[in-house]
Structure formats: structure tokens, C-alpha cells
Amino acid sequence: MKAKPMSAILLVACLGLAGCGHTAGARALSGGAIGAGAGAILGTVTGIGPGAGAAIGGGVGAVAGAAISSNTLNLGKPLVGE
Fold first, then answer.
1. Per-domain residue ranges of the chain
2. Which of 15, 46, 48, 66 makes an SS bond possible with 28, Cβ 3.0 to 4.6 Å?
3. 49: left (phi over 0), alpha (psi -120 to 50) or beta
4. What's the pLDDT score for residue 40?
5. 3-state SS track over the chain
């Protein structure tokens, strides 16, 4: 039963960090990378495995990053590229 709170934490983290960058592509990449990292950690902790957790977290982060407008959530200038 611990998987449900962990999933909620992952979702909030992906949505909160998906605002890195100004273009939809940059936000999708940063959100996917952050989500994959968080998902791998949570997947290991919850028992679904790091690969499955990374796939789920990366997908959620990429979709959230692409969907959220930089006008809605803007965490500033990215460290790399753009």
C-alpha cells in the first residue's frame, strides 16, 4: 500500500519540475529526465523495479513538461542549451 503515496509524490515532483525551459520541447526533455530519475528511485523502493519506474516517471514528466506553458510555470533559465 505504500506505492500510492509514492506515486503521488512522483506525480507532484514531475509536475513541479516540468517547468524547466521556455519551449515545449525543452520542458518535455527536462521533465522526462527528472521524472525518469525520480521514477527509477521510487521504482526501486516500491518494488516495481528501477526500469519500470524510470519508464513511468519519464513518460509522466515528459507529458507534463510539454503540456505546461512557460507562462504558467517558469523556473528560470535552463542550465544547458536553448
1. 10-67
2. 66
3. left
4. 92
5. CCHHHHHHHHHHHHHHHCCCCCCHHHHHHHHHHHHHHHHHHHHHHHCCCHHHHHHHHHHHHHHHHHHCCCCCCCCCCCCCCC
pTM: 0.63
Distances (CA, A) of 35 to 23, 58: 18, 4
Task: Mention every residue, 6+ apart, whose C-beta is less than 8 A from residue 38.
Answer: 10, 13, 14, 57, 61
Q: How far is CA 61 from CA 1, 39, 68, in A?
A: 23, 10, 11
Mean pLDDT, consecutive 10-residue stretches, the chain (82 aa), reads 58 55 82 91 91 94 84 62 54
